[in-house]
């Protein structure tokens, strides 16, 4: 397994994992339980989405679509 994405939250990691699985790519979330042990500091870079090395090219396409959608969802007020 190789790291594909360093998530800001467990929610983001599981959203991406779900998209990868819909595309037929096996994915795992690593480090999601570290989020609660950090306390008041923001947990960045601890939660990762992992995929098999042979699935990496297809997973990168899914990641690109996921990030494009995330950027469209952010609005400035």
What key phrases describe this protein's structure?
77 residues, Alpha-Beta Plaits, three-stranded antiparallel β-sheet
Could you characterize the architecture of this molecule?
The radius of gyration is 13 Å and the shape is globular. The mean pLDDT is 86. It has 77 residues and is an alpha+beta fold. The chain has two helices and three strands; from the N terminus they run βαββα. The chain has a single domain (2-73), classed as Hypothetical protein rpa1041 (Alpha-Beta Plaits), CATH 3.30.70.1530. It has a three-stranded antiparallel β-sheet, covered by helices on one side.
Look at the structure and name the CATH superfamily. Hypothetical protein rpa1041
Helix content: 40-55%
Nearest-integer average pLDDT: 86
| Overall outline | globular
Structural class: alpha+beta
Count of runs of 4 or more consecutive helical residues: 2
Order of helical and strand elements: EHEEH
The largest sheet is: 3 strands, antiparallel
The level 1 CATH classification is Alpha Beta
